[in-house]
Each structure stands twice: as structure tokens, then as C-alpha cells.
Design goal:
- This protein is of the alpha+beta class.
- It has a domain at 4-58.
- The chain is 44% helix and 23% strand.
- A 4-stranded antiparallel sheet has the order 1-2-3-4, covered by helices on one side. Strands 5-6-7 form a 3-stranded antiparallel sheet.
- α1 runs antiparallel to α2.
- The longest helix has 23 residues, at 9-31.
């Protein structure tokens, strides 16, 4: 199986919006006369803010290949061999259970109330019936559901 990577759609959209806001503010500070006496500071500050936004919103991911599942959270990286994976859960976010450890995946959050309702309606339209014990995080079309399907 080739390596497959999953990133949250919601956080990617949020990241692009944040980049646009940072760019507008930086350009505004550079264009308005007298707003900034140190243009280099504005540029460095804007690039620093964009780097932080990228690290927090864009970089978290989950990668699946033949040997293991690799989880890249904001600050930590975990590699879980298939033999060590016991259970995949989607209660609050995608969680991988291994012997003695539960790894939360920040790239695959469970949907909120609105996202759950939207995903449930779409699932019922396409599938017809939903099992009564299906959690919102298990539904296809949600970040945690899509990531869980990839891992399973």
C-alpha cells in the first residue's frame, strides 16, 4: 500500500483564513503612512505569525503505510506499528489504543453539533439507515470518520 496522509479539512481552511488576515494586516501596516516606523519588524512579525499558524493548524497529520500508522501532532510524533494497534476510537477525536497508551490524533477531531447533524443527514441520504450505536465521529464525511476509515 502506498503511504497515505490525512489532514483535517477544517484546520486547513482556518489556516488559509489566518494567513490572509496576517497578510492584510502586514500590508496595511506597511502601506499606511506613519503606521509603522520599522517595516522590517512588520515583515518579520508577519512571517513569524504565519509560521506559528502553519505549525499549529497545517502540520498535524496522520500517515498510514504497510508497516505502521504515524501520528504527527502539534509537538509530538508517534509511530504505531500495526502489531501494537489494539483499538481505534472516535469519541472526541480519533484515538489509537496501544498496550499502555492512548494516542489522540489532533488532525482528526470529532465533529461538533452542527457537523454531526450535517454528516448524519448526508449518511442517511446515501446509506438509508444508520446503526443506532454509530457515533458522530464514525460517520463518513467527518474528519475523524475519514481518518478512522483510513486506519482501519
Amino acid at each position: 500500500m502506498p503511504r497515505q496522509t490525512f489532514r483535517s479539512t477544517f484546520t486547513r481552511i482556518l489556516c488559509v483564513i489566518a494567513w490572509a488576515i496576517i497578510a492584510v494586516v502586514a500590508i496595511g501596516l506597511l502601506v499606511v503612512p506613519g503606521a509603522s516606523d520599522a517595516p522590517a519588524l512588520v515583515i518579520v512579525g508577519g512571517l513569524g505569525a504565519a509560521a506559528v499558524v502553519t505549525a499549529v493548524l497545517w502540520s498535524p497529520s496522520i500517515c498510514v503505510d504497510d508497516e505502521a500508522v504515524q501520528v504527527d501532532n502539534i509537538a509530538l510524533r508517534y509511530r504505531v506499528p500495526w502489531a501494537a494497534l489494539i483499538h481505534v476510537d472516535t469519541r472526541y477525536a480519533l484515538q489509537l489504543h496501544t498496550p499502555g497508551r492512548r494516542i489522540g490524533v489532533t488532525a482528526a477531531p470529532a465533529p461538533g453539533a452542527t457537523g454531526s447533524l450535517r454528516a448524519m443527514r448526508a449518511h442517511r441520504r446515501s446509506e438509508g439507515v444508520t446503526a443506532p450505536n454509530t457515533r458522530p465521529g464514525e460517520l463518513p464525511g467527518t474528519d475523524s470518520g475519514n481518518a478512522a476509515e483510513l486506519v482501519r
